[in-house]
Every structure is written in C-alpha cells, then in structure tokens.
Design brief:
Elements lengths: L1 H19 L5 E4 L7 E5 L16 E4 L9 H9 L1 E4 L4 E4 L3 E4 L7 H4 L13 H11 L7 E3 L12 H17 L5 E6 L1 H11 L3 H7 E7 L8 H7 L11 H10 L1 H5 L4 H4 L6 E3 L3 E2 L3 H10 L4 H9 L12 E8 L1 E9 L11 E7 L5 H4 L13 E7 L10 H12 L3
Parallel strand pairs: 1-7, 1-8, 8-9, 9-12, 10-13, 12-15
Antiparallel strand pairs: 2-3, 2-6, 4-5, 10-11, 13-14
Helix pairs in contact: 2-9, 4-15, 12-13
The structure holds 2-acetamido-2-deoxy-beta-D-glucopyranose (2 copies).
C-alpha cells in the first residue's frame, strides 16, 4: 500500500514536471526554393529526354541529378506554370501535378534533397540545435509549413487555412503555449501577409514572436533579372536561360518585385542601348512588351502591391538579416550584350548577396508603429541563405523559444 502510494507520488511529480516542460512551439516557414517539391507526371509533353508518366510522385526540387544537362530541361518543365486567363490563376504545366510533401513535419524544410550534403541543408542546423540543446521533438513542438513557393499569397488561401490550423494545433498540443513563427526570405513576406489577415485577438493568443530572416519586404532587384534573362542564383553550372521560362511564369517572382516605394520609382532598373526602364508602371509595361512577355506586366500589376510592407505584423518581431555583400541593383545591356537573352552588366549595392539592404531593413520601420517591440539584428557578411546557419540567427530563435529574451 505504502509502496503503491509512493509510486503514485513519483508518477504525479513526473506528470507535473512534464507539464512544466512543454516547449514553445516553433513553426518553420521556408523561402523561395526552401522546401522540397515533388511531381506527378501524367502525359507530360516535355523534352525528348524526360519521363512522360510516373506511377508515384518523383522529387523535382531538388533532385540533384536533374540539375545536370540535359535533365535540367525536365526539371524546368516540371516547375513551369501556365496562366489560365479564364480563372486568372496560374496552374501546373501540362501533364504535371506538383505536390508539397511534409507539411507539419520538418524533413522537407531541413533538407532540400534526399542527398544530404552541406549545399542541400536548409533549416537543418536550427532544428538540430533546438533538438539537441532544448529537447525539441520534430513534428511535435518544431514543425515545418512548406508551401508551393512558385505562388504568391493571392493563390495561397488553402495554405493560409492550413497554417492557421497548424499554429492552433501546436499551441493546444504543447500546454497552450503561443508559438514562435520563423520565416526565411519569401516566407517572411508570406507570413506578414498571413498575419495581416488575422485579428489582433488571434495573434495575441497564438503568436509569441515572429523571427524574420532575410525578409525581402520591399522586394528584390534580382527578381527583375529572373524574369527578363533568367537568374541562376550564382550557380555557374546552370545556364540562366534554362530556367527563364519557369521563373517568368512564377507569381512569386513578381510578388518579390522591387517596390517603387522602397527603391524609388525613378530608378533605372533596366537599361538597354535603346532606352531606360524605371520602376514606374508604364515603363514596366513597356519592358515586358519589349521582351515579348507581356504577361509579366499583368503579374506585376496584380502582385506588386499585394502585401502592404508599411503595415506592421502586430506581433513581437525580430528581423535578422545579412549585409555588406555585393547585391545586384541595376541591369545594363549597353555594352554589346544581347537584350534580353544574354546576362547584363550588373550595378551592385549593399545587401545580403540576393536582397538589397533597403528592402531587408523595411521592418525596422515597424518599430513604433505597433504596440509590440521590433528588434533588428544585422549580421555583417551573412549571405542570404547561409544566414540560416549563423549562430546570430540561431540564438535569436533559441532566446525567443526559451523565453530568455
Ligand atoms: C503600388 O502603389 C504605388 C503607390 O500607390 C504605385 O505608385 C505603384 O504603381 C503601385 N504598383 C503596382 C504594381 O500597382
Ligand atoms: C521608414 O521611415 C522613414 C521615416 O518615417 C521614412 O523616411 C522611410 O521612407 C521609411 N522607409 C520605408 C522603406 O518605408
């Protein structure tokens, strides 16, 4: 009897300390290219080399073998979108159906590929750190919210419902603790859009912090290059033209267009022998006419101002971003380069190598515009994607998660 009682007491004590030991849930939202995408093929009408049909989803982004010629054409075909003028929406390419695997888990945002090497790691360092140091459990209190990063928030309503439900579920499963949302790159702007759509009461209840890593809140000049000539993210073995059709077709490319309010509308973003194109609407219209892709202007009109970056998120925010690296700012085809099929001469400004500083530090302006604090954490020399491996970034998440900030 005494024995049973003692056992019961031990059990009760363990349960009580277990309850106190819930971690603050961490929700990981990736950026452009920051999670795996798989594809089902059903009669795809693509390059002679590529498969036409599959009996199960095959890895598209990022199957390393698919980055080599000629397989790279198969990958570009799978990722290209078609615009349907009847619905005003973008759809998968003919015979392709893209699947986003791993929602609510971490695997597909930790690694971009099933080949786990340094270059394919993404949120893996952060997740490992929280698991090893604070006892986090994958899929329980640290979860991923991958999405189809080709799309912009105007075509993501289903995702926003899922994301809201994931946050509420994580809150309830972890002792009613409000969550920390971590975003990277495009994911930061997507989170901002999501938070704008939620009531202040909902945010107060469910969201403790927003950690925005390398958020291009004012857009990025490199998205202009991606849609005009193709952009290979600096990977020398990839020809920019191979991916241009895909990049041009992605709504997210235009969602990340440099905002005239942040970059100055009079900025000559593109210059050819014939003329200059600024960020003013009429110039952008002409630009896409002149390169033979008038559709680009329609996307720009629909998506350029979709998320108001001057409106704060309404939750406590930490903006972590790199600076001090050469970042493309203006593009010139004045020096004998063929427009738009050859890569231009590039005029650089400060930034993280991909996103310009004036866009990264837009969130600094939220300070004082909302009741909750906004902290800015600039990290000298941290490249856009590598930032996710920097201790400065991991520390910010750890402090927010452990409540020691
Ligand atoms: C966004 O808003 C600004 C300011 O109102 C305007 O000048 C610009 O043309 C708009 N951009 C788009 C893509 O509609
Ligand atoms: C930030 O705020 C300052 C001062 O109000 C303003 O001059 C500047 O244009 C703002 N920057 C952005 C990117 O909104």
């Amino acid at each position: 009897m005494i024995h049973c009682f003692a056992l019961g007491l031990v059990w009760l004590t363990a349960a009580a300390s277990g309850a106190a030991a819930f971690n603050t849930p961490v929700i990981l939202v990736p950026g452009d290219g920051g999670n795996q995408l798989w594809a089902n093929l059903n009669g795809a009408n693509n390059h002679w080399y590529c498969e036409r049909n599959t009996d199960k989803p095959v890895m598209a982004w990022l199957d390393l073998i698919n980055l080599a010629y000629p397989a790279v054409h198969c990958l570009a075909y799978k990722l290209e979108m078609k615009f349907d003028p009847n619905t005003g929406r973008s759809r998968d390419n003919d015979g392709v159906s893209i699947v986003v695997p791993g929602f609510g888990e971490t695997e597909t945002v930790e690694w971009l590929s099933d080949v786990k090497i340094e270059q394919t790691g993404y949120y893996n360092k952060l997740v490992d750190h929280l698991v090893n140091k604070l006892g986090y459990r994958r899929g329980v209190d640290i979860v991923g919210a991958p999405f189809d990063f080709r799309r912009a928030p105007n075509e993501m309503s289903e995702y926003f419902v899922q994301l809201g439900a994931l946050i509420e579920r994580s809150y309830a499963a972890n002792g009613n603790k409000p969550v920390v949302i971590v975003g990277h790159s495009l994911g930061c702007k997507v989170i901002l859009h999501f938070l704008h759509s939620r009531s202040q009461a909902w945010k107060d209840k469910y969201v403790k912090d927003f950690v925005a890593a390398a958020g291009p809140f004012g857009g990025s000049a490199s998205s202009v290059l991606a849609s005009v000539s193709g952009y290979n993210l600096g990977l020398g073995f990839i020809r920019p033209l191979w991916f241009r059709d895909a990049q041009r077709s992605w709504p997210s490319t235009y969602y990340l267009y440099p905002s005239g309010l942040v970059f100055e509308e009079s900025l000559a973003i593109v210059e050819t022998k014939q003329r200059k194109y600024t960020l003013a609407e009429e110039d952008i219209r002409d630009l896409y006419q002149d390169i033979g892709y008038p559709h680009g202007y329609r996307h720009f009109k629909a998506l350029g101002n979709l998320t108001d970056q001057t409106l704060p998120p309404g939750v406590r925010t930490h903006c972590v971003f790199g600076h001090g690296l050469k970042t493309a700012h203006q593009f010139r085809w004045t020096n004998g380069r063929q427009f738009p099929d050859q890569q231009p001469d590039i005029v650089y400004s400060d930034g993280d190598g991909t996103v310009n500083i004036r866009s990264l530090d837009v969130c600094v302006n939220w300070s004082g515009k909302q009741a909750q604090p906004v902290a800015s954490v600039p990290v000298a020399g941290a490249e856009h994607v590598k930032l996710l491996t920097y201790s400065e970034f991991i520390d910010v998440v750890e402090r927010a998660a452990s409540g020691s900030d």
